[in-house]
Amino acid sequence: HVQLVESGGGLVQAGGSLRLSCTASRSTFRHYAMGWFRQAPGKEREGVAVINFNGGTTLYADSVKGRFTISRDNAKNTGYLQMNSLKPEDTALYYCASGGPLSLTPNQWTAWGQGSQVTVSS
User: Fold this and answer.
1) 93 and 42 Cβ atoms separated by less than 8 Å
2) Tens digit of each residue's pLDDT (9 = 90 or more) over 53-80
3) Exposed/middle/buried for 40, CB within 10 Å: 0-12, 13-18, 19+?
4) Residue 54's closest CA among 76, 32, 69?
5) Up-side HSE of residue 63: CA atoms within 13 Å toward CB?
């Protein structure tokens, strides 16, 4: 199946911004929905944002609405998560996923990247 690789994570101060990228190994990526999920220490993995195959439909967790934007560039086999107004509670390992429905439920997705750490300092 498709391999996914995240990049762009790092350490940022509260109120700052980061953009995560997810690059897929196969052009078939363009035919499937993709999403971003995160997991903080001691907590369950949760959905952050998902986008349909052509970018026409998006879904966000309430906790990130108005701050995060998911997008994709299928010509580059790449998805993005723009994160603005970051808060310490956004600190987590962020995963890119593909092969799921338009759902924020992690176990409905089938292909996952290795994760990229985002740490937001106070």
Assistant:
1) no
2) 999 999 999 999 999 999 999 999 999 9
3) middle
4) 32
5) 13
